[in-house]
Amino acid sequence: MPSSGVSHLAGAAQSADIVYLDNSSTTRPDSQVVRAVTEVLEHDFGNPSSLHRLGAKAERLMDEARERVAQMINADPGEIYFTSGGTEANNWAIAGTASAGKERHIVSTTVEHPSVIALLDALHEEGWEITLVGVDGEGRVDPDEVLDAVTEDTALVSVMFVQNEIGTLQDCREIGRRLLSLGPKKPRFHVDAVQGFARLPIDVKDWGVDLLTMSAHKIHGIKGAGALYIRKGVRLRPLVFGGGQESGLRSGTENMPGIVGFGEACKLWSEDREEVMSRLASLRKRLIAGIKGALPDAVLHGPQEEGVAPHICHFAFPGFKGESILHALEARNVFVSTGSACSSHKTRPSPVVMALGRSEDEALASIRFSMSRYTTEKDIDRAVEALDESLKELSAWRKK
Question: Known catalytic residue: 342?
């Protein structure tokens, strides 16, 4: 049997005309995922709540997907609850906790995803005390500072595993273990693992995690499917009420195509994760060397090599606007991002880059390059060449 990495690459090779380096925003669905989703849409379209055999088949497919998701994080299948995506799962983890007890304090960080920060802002307006722990110049939070922020009134600690803009890894295992040392009255520990799930090893039992967020379309599944891990014994108030699906915690007819595709994407990553991520680490080094070689003034945000996700690379290009660079690259069929896809239509400096202690101008001059299992050396070289051409073009326009 051929290497799955090679076969999948052949099955979902990118168009020769396009270099897609915006994979932290979304990924192209893998060909095997598309086939599995199509099978559900055309043949296995039953409602898993129905009592007839089409319903039973749908329920079985959903159970298989749930088991595959659970295996990726060393969880029990009964601890996986399907959602519409990462944003819903983050909101459920935080708002569900906020409604479940008497405590009124939450600890998080200054570099979280907008779906976390916006909800924390809303809770603050309702009277909650919110502590956002700062980070160092590479985006790392100090576990000691997280623990120092915890009080007797803390209901939840919420920390992102992989920062979605700059790729910095947080030591969630250390934070979780420190929280466990506080004893039975410790606050719950939520990890937003959307950018790290499937790509990097996660063990919810070893990390002491109570709640963990995942998303399908970040790992070559399709949009509209995600999951929240809820540790057995953790009480969480539902956000959605109705027919009692997902063990009564998340009502609404399940998105079977998305869920089955999610499971198929997990199967894909379980077969070749180490091989793919090793290759991406090499490609990231190639990208950094290429950019620094062609553009010595470029500023890398986040760690150079250690403690960073291999698929994310974030640069600032002083003297330019990130949005102008993005469109100049787009004209050359190279697709990148200026920041989080959930807020990229707003031209404002990235709060994440600002949290690193960088200037507003530098934050506005930033571009994120994010790779996938299908990214090649040729893609990287084309991107560097296009970037060099784009900045020369923009410089010429600026002088007119």
Answer: yes
